[in-house]
Amino acid sequence: MTAANGSDPHETPTPDAAVPDGAAGTDTAGVQGTGKGTGPQSTGPQGPSVAELAAGYAEKAGVHRNSAGHVDMLKTAGGIQGIAESILPGLVFLIAFTITRELTPALFAALAAAAVFTVARLVQRRPLTQALAGIAGVGISAWLANSTGKAEDFYVLGFFTNIAYIAGMVLSIVLKWPIAGLLFGFVRNEGLEWRKDPERLRVYRLGTWVVVAVLALRLVVQVPLYFMGEPGLAALATTRLLMGAPLYILGLWVAWLLTKPAVQARPAD
C-alpha cells in the first residue's frame, strides 16, 4: 500500500507468495472475479478494459495481485530484494557502530550498503526508483546523524515519514476516500463502485485504520527508545527492523481480510 512505500530506508520497502486468504475465487461478492474465464478482458481496438486499467493502477500504486486475484503480499512489500534494500543499510549501520563505536565509519558502511543495491539494479537493468529512493533516504539519515553527532538520529527520518503517512491516511478516511478502498478496490475489480455502497465504504475505512494503527504502533514503541539516546540504540534499530516490512505485511494482510466482500449465495436452480 502506498502508505508504507515511503523513502525512509528503515521502514517498509517500496514494491518492485500468495496471501493466505482462503481458496481462490472466494473474494468475488458482487464484483468481477479473477478466476478462470473472469479475468481482465481486452476490448480489442477500443483500448484496454476497465479491469485492465484498474489492474495497472493498482500495480503502479504498489499493490500487486497474484493469479488467484488476491493481493500478493511479498511482491507488494517489494519482494526479497526490496525487503533486503529496506533492512540491510540500517542493520549494517548498527553492526558497524556497535563494533567501532565510531559514527563516521558506521555511516559510510550504511551508505555503501545502499549503493550496492543501486549497482545491483543497474546490472539487472531493473527500475532504479526504489534503489535511488533508498540511497537518498540513507543519505539524509546519515547527514542528520553526522550533523548532530548522535547515532540515534540515523533513524529519526522514519518518524517523520510515519507521521506524514498517518496524516494522509486519516485525511483519506475523513474525506471518505480511504486508501485501502482505492487500492484494494482496484485489485478486486470494484473500481470506484465500492464508494456507492455504505458497507463497502465502512470496511475500507476500517482497513485503512488498520494500516494507520501499524504506523502509529511504530511511533509508540520506537520514539521512547529514541529519547533514551545511545543506550536505546540497539533496541531502536532492532524494533525498526522487526516493525518494518514484517509488520507492514501483517497489517496489509489483516486489512485485506477485513475488507473482503461477503460471498453472496447463488439462487437455487
From TrEMBL:
Biased composition (Low complexity): 39-49
InterPro entries noted in UniProt: UCP010219 (IPR016566)
Signal peptide: none
Annotated transmembrane regions: 82-100, 106-123, 128-145, 165-186, 206-227, 233-258
Keywords: Membrane, Transmembrane, Transmembrane helix
Keyword Signal carried by entry: no
Keyword check for Transmembrane helix: yes
Region (Disordered): 1-49
Record's protein name: DUF3159 domain-containing protein
Biological source species: Arthrobacter cavernae
